[in-house]
Amino acid sequence: MNTQVNFRTINQLAIPATISGIAEPILSITDTAIVGNIPTDSLESLAAAGIVGSFLSMLIWVLGQTRSSISSIISQYLGAGRLEEVKHLPAQAIFFNILLSVVVLVSTVFVIEDIFTLFNATGKILHYCVSYYSIRVWGFPLTLFTFAIFGIFRGLQNTFYPMVIAIIGAVLNIGLDFLLVYGVEGWVPAMYLEGAAWASLISQAIMALLAFVLLMKKTEISMKLVFPLNKELKRVVFMSLNLFVRAIALNVALILAVREATALGDRFIGAHTIAINLWLFAAFFIDGFAAAGNSMGGKLLGAGDYDGLWKLAKKIVLYGMVVSFILMMGGFLFYHPIGHLFSNDTLVLDTFYGIFYIVIFGLPMNTLAFVFDGLFKGLGEMKYLRNVLLTATFLGFVPSLYLGKFLGWGFYAIWVAFVIWMLIRGFALLWKFDRKFRPLVQNP
Question: What stretches pass through the bilayer (predicted)?
Fold first, then answer.
């Protein structure tokens, strides 16, 4: 099957993927902004939302890797013109993934306080972490289910339906946040932090339902669990396991950052919560081109079109860099009002402004890493992605973080470590792609 690699075809996938990709960080950002402005205990509530959000992101990223594996295999079979052979694969993969997620969910419910104590949460912050997590955690399997269906659509070269689902979920979440956090006098009581948790949970449930309905109505992919198991399920499992290990390494960095920020004091974890939410928002914004690389890369590989694959890589990096520079300019121009969206606490804002320039200057390097990360997932190069993350985390991020701490850099050490982490990831993937695929290209 012939795939055109040009601005139009790339952005037909990238723009909807960008919109759908920012749905999850918008859920967290909305919670953070609204919770940071509640009338009582806003600083403690903001810190709790940040800690719980980081932990839930870890769970989702660790167990949500089936999405990338399914997308990779479906896109490769689509490119080879053999899609019928994997028609029942997604249902089998999703069933086992959701079963695993339920086991993890139930196991964490009994040790919630112990989990957040590891993040250095104490007193009111620990209490708020427990109450917030106890509600939000039930949306965890729903999010995994939705993400897996997004992976199916991505493999089918369709990012439009995920975009529709994401928009509905984000808008609903924002409306419910205002309604349940602040309440309506005489109608709905103000629930503060717990209201934000319920808003997220309801939105996740609606998104999961919409994803299921659209998959059934708009594709030939079956959600019926049938036997025998598909021949590609083994490859899905091994790809997912590699990404599972990779996601653990990724979350070691994110959790250590939260832990060290919490240890520095309330204003530092508040500032870190704002910064990491904006970092993730920018990451998912750029991830639209990674999604295009994922979808189209797998299809081009399945069709054996290495010239098209090389052209795709150059174009998505270029387009991603343009977007990152636009985000940089927006950050420099509007950093002050951006901070006030999340908190009115002067100490938190001053701390946030002190490191925001590091977040902004790191965006081009983030683009290189994220774009090639998506492309490599589409190509099925999960083992190499695993090794890169292990190297970047344990030979880059961790030593940099604790060296900076030893040198007395304080809060700056966390964000310098993030820059080094992304530097290693980006250049390692660029080097591998050039080394493996340049020899296969007839017209580089």
Answer: 46-64, 93-112, 132-153, 160-184, 196-215, 236-257, 269-290, 316-335, 355-372, 384-403, 409-431
Report the distance separating Cα 52 and Cα 325, nearest Å.
31
**Contacts of 218 by beta carbon, 8 Å cutoff, 6+ apart:** 161
Q: 293: which 2 tokens?
A: 């690389």
Could you read off the pLDDT of 253-285 as tens digits, one per residue? 988 998 899 888 888 988 888 888 888 778 777
Three-class secondary structure assignment of 146-207: HHHHHHHHHHCCCCHHHHHHHHHHHHHHHHHHHHHHHCECCCECCCCHHHHHHHHHHHHHHH
Q: What is the mean pLDDT of residues 22-37?
A: 69
Task: Report d(CA 105, CA 201) in Å as an integer.
Answer: 14
What percent of the chain has pLDDT above 90?
Answer: 18
* Distance (Å, whole) CA 262 – CA 54: 12
> Could you tell me the pTM of the whole model?
0.77
Residues 295 and 223 both lie in one domain: no
Lowest mean per-residue pLDDT among 48-52, 372-376, 433-437? 48-52
- What digits encode the pLDDT tens for the residues 283-301? 777 877 888 888 888 888 8
Distance CA(81)–CA(385), nearest Å, equals 27
Residue span of the structural domain in which 331 resides: 234-443
Phi, then psi, of 438 in degrees rounded to 5: -60, -45
**φ and ψ of 188, to 5 deg:** -125, 125
Does 297 lie in the same domain as 217?
A: no
For 217-240, give one letter per residue: b (16+ CB within 10 A) or e. eebebeeeeeeeebebbebbbebb
In this structure, the answer to whether residues 168 and 19 fall within a common structural domain is yes
> To 5 degrees, how large is the angle CA 255–CA 201–CA 247?
30
Cα radius of gyration rounded to whole Å, the chain = 21
Nearest-angstrom CA–CA distance, 365 and 105? 34
Residue 426's Cβ-count burial label (10 Å; 0-12, 13-18, 19+) is buried
Domain total in the chain: 2
In a shared domain, residues 218 and 326: no
More confident site: 358 or 8 = 358
Assess whether pLDDT exceeds 70 at residue 303: yes
Which of 229, 257, 283 corresponds to the end of one domain? 229
Q: Are 191 and 128 in contact (CB under 8 A)?
A: no
